[in-house]
Amino acid sequence: MTYPSIFNDVIGPVMRGPSSSHCAASLRIGRICHDLMDGRISDINIEFDPNGSLATTHKDQGSDMGLFGGFLGWEAYDERLVNSEMHIGAAGIKVNIEIKEIHAEHPNTYQITLNNPWETHQVIAISTGGGMIEVIEIDGVKVSLAGDSFVTLIYTTDSQKISDYLENAELGDDLEIHVKEKNLFVLKSQSFLNESIIEELKNIESVTAIKQIKPVLPVLTRKNTTVPFITCEEMLSYNQEKDLSLWELAVKYESMRGNISEAEVLSKMNDIRLILKNAVDTGLKGTKFEDRILGPQSVKFKSMMEDKKLIDGDTLNRIIMYVSAIMEVKSSMGVIVAAPTAGSCGAMPGAVLGVADSLGLSDEETVKALMIAGLIGVFIAAHSTFAAEVGGCQAECGSGATMAAAAIVHLAGGNLNQSISAASMALQSSLGMICDPIGNRVEAPCLNRNVMAASNALSCANMALADYDHLIPLDQVIETMYEVGKSIPNTLRCTNLGGLSITKAAKEIEAKLTQKYFYKNC
After folding, report:
1. Start and end of every Serine dehydratase-like alpha subunit domain (predicted)?
2. Neighbours of 111 (CB within 10 A)
């Protein structure tokens, strides 16, 4: 199986935009398309299935914006993203988007045909949640590429010649022949092939083209990757004689998964902490952005909290303030971390940073708590989903609450078992939560639900610290969340087709936003 990385799958990417499933994922897909075409693209045809989520959300939730940035080779945090449509036009690239039956099995399926005067290629890819992707087909050949390795494509008219060459060449131990089908070889490795190897391949008469695609994820996957555990139950068994704390187990997991040192793991998480803290500080200063529904509400909340005009509850109120600030930065195209998604980017970080600051804890303890949150997220990523299009908002805000609850227990001085108990109770409390964005924007009721998720995390952490019995093991709750998600109608899974999305007020808001966009771009 594919083993999730804390920094790839759970706490990341660093990005701008309303939705990681839409913005960051589509940008990563676009980046792969950019490399496949050697950065030379004349026109693009993008197809979305009418029965999927993207047919109704691709523009308003940022898929178009992300794709255009990716086609131009940008990063997910590029400040030009908000104007990517203008930039792709200025680059002379023609884009056509069609809603067309493409028999997509996944609700977030992109079918993209790319052209220039010399060549045509087609990519089919899916967004799997939290900014993660899988390229499932290139030029009619089935593949499975997550963007976590260097990829070399060799197009040939004589596959036997290429097989013979690859068998005899010294290519390194980390190289994997991922696909050898029809007239295409797909190689995965930790770095690109040596330039001399590339030249030798180009000189083989049957080779018609060689393409090199850079990774789009921060942590690479090596050949024969192993991890110490991949379920909560396996982790507890692994730890029986080691008696490690939960944050130490998280560091060990990510160190082995990413083939990096434990010091580097903690350093990476501290970098994430700084970005999260900056998002809180930025949000509390007030944010401005024209194309959004909600204004900077956290500023007034902060003022009323400082003036003692809110119902007492210092830690909870601080959490609400932090969650709101982060969500407002997201909605104003500021830099945030999808943790585990952009739609739920406020819940876990707002809760963890809010508790840490309320208790006066060190940055080091905050990093440890974020590692714990990341490990709980690994179990969810491996056995369920973060995508609201697949599992509803329970997969986003519910997961955020689950991760935060375990982390808060650590901040309060609780033990490993209490953290696991808090996580189980938080996810149990989130089952069945639907995703029905108002005005087809990832702002409301997303903000309310992020606050609810963070409040749920705090409550469950306190219950666990008092040794409440969670009854159902965390692994089983995670599996249940996935099954519940499949039973939620697709109209209530981020399609803008049900729930609050279709209320009279929501449709009026959506119409006003559409009209404002129309007049702005006339």
Report:
1. 241-500
2. 19
Asked if 37 and 139 touch (Cβ cutoff 8 Å), the reply is no
CA 125 and chain centroid, separation: 15
Please state, in angstroms and rounded to a whole number, the distance separating the CA atoms of residues 449 and 314.
Answer: 20
If phi > 0 it is left, if psi is from -120 to 50 it is alpha, else beta; for residue 62 that is left
Q: Taking all residues of the chain, what is their mean pLDDT, rounded to a whole number?
A: 96
* Count of residues making up the chain: 522
User: What per-residue string of b and e applies to 247-257 under the rule 16 or more CB within 10 Å gives b?
Assistant: bbbbbbbbbbb
Q: What is the CA radius of gyration of the chain?
A: 23
Helix (H) or strand (E) run with residue 251 in it: helix 246-258
Burial class (CB in 10 A: 0-12, 13-18, 19+), 517: middle
- CA dihedral over 14, 492, 489, 137, signed as positive or negative: negative
| CB burial string 344-374: b at 16+ within 10 A, e below | bbbbbbbbbbbbbbbeebeeeebbbbbbbbb
* Nearest CA among 388, 380, 376, 458 for reference residue 416: 376
> What is the value of pTM for the model shown?
0.95
Find residue 264's DSSP bridge partners: none
What mean pLDDT do residues 124-132 have? 97
Q: What is the largest CA-CA distance in the chain?
A: 78
Residues 474-499 have pLDDT tens digits of 999 999 999 999 999 999 999 999 99
- Read out DSSP for 65-98? HHHHHHHTT--TT-TTGGGHHHHHHHTT-EEEEE
